[in-house]
Amino acid sequence: MLDIFALEATVKNPTMLSVLYSVCLSFLLSSVIAFTYKKTFQGLSYSRNFLQAMILSSIVTAIAMQAIGDNVARGMGMMGALAIIRFRSSLKDPRDMIFIFSTLSIGMACGVYSYQIAVIGAAAFALTAFAIQSVPFSKEAHFDGLLKFNMESNQNEKNELQNILTNNCNYFALVTLREVAQGTRLDYAYQIKLKKGQDKSDFIDNLREISSMKGLSLLLQESTVEI
Fold this sequence. Notes:
Strand order of the largest sheet: 2-3-1-4
Number of domains: 2
Number of strands: 4
Shape: elongated
Largest sheet: 4 strands, antiparallel
């Protein structure tokens, strides 16, 4: 029978079995985190490469921690190697950054043979992610999407626009406003949240009734994908 606690005592002199166990455990726990990310993802489509990166980064971290051990010189060498490598991939969503950091932490714990910390930490993280997913405030979005258009700088049409937004939206906020066509037209960008049950097609049709309306586009949060 494999004694996990005996494996934890072999940090200074790791055996082949303890190294293999660390790598396998980091793979298993990071897969749990990746599964949690997939099930709690709120967008239209997630990146399969990102899921794979989470699992692979955990294994790489575990290997690096085992290679460094308690050797200060190795640690300094690893820092120098990482300083040379420039990671140009940017994570736009803070949630993605937290998931990556969680898999790195799991790999680090497995790499120093702190298996109990790795298992309990991964379980706590996954359960918390699922619990937050069911909390009401995590499901509510203050703004549904982005509305863009341009129209003539006319007070009557501005009033008509205001009435349409008020009748069809729970919230709307002006993001940008700039003059085009030598000041004869205005280019608008609004963040909006449609009223419950409001059809976006009807909303667009109402906006098109404004005679000078041009360049109308509505990007809703649930129908957009980051690329």
